[in-house]
């Protein structure tokens, strides 16, 4: 879902996309064994220190708006956010991925953890 330049607000299309995600999570509540990865990418090397600080703040704010919307709407699954700072193109998209939890006993979760498979739920719109 996209954001306007210098804005942390998504448009009605983005809101509709998130509503669909909430509805699908509620109808599949018992089979949702995983988490939603919320990802945003920007170029940390772009501009001076003040601009870099602003871009990081804006990235965090955009992710928080998505998480807040989902939480208020009743999205019940865990959410994890990630900000990628090695992007090389101007990008104002938050991407959402559903990640399945790996099948492993709880006592092994902190040792030998492999990345969860990522399935794109919603590609950048």
UniProtKB/TrEMBL annotation:
Protein name, as recorded: OmpA family protein
Source organism per UniProt: Shewanella jiangmenensis
């Amino acid at each position: 879902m996209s954001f306007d330049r210098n804005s942390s607000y998504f448009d009605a299309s983005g809101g509709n996309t998130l509503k669909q995600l909430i509805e699908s999570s509620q109808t599949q509540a018992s089979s949702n064994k995983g988490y939603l990865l919320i990802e945003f990418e920007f170029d940390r090397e772009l501009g001076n220190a003040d601009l870099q600080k602003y871009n990081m703040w804006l990235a965090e704010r955009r992710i928080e708006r998505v998480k807040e919307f989902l939480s208020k709407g009743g999205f019940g699954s865990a959410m994890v956010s990630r900000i990628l700072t090695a992007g090389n193109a101007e990008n104002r998209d938050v991407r959402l991925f559903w990640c399945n939890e790996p099948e492993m006993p709880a006592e092994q979760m902190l040792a030998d953890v492999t990345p969860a498979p990522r399935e794109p739920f919603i590609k950048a719109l």
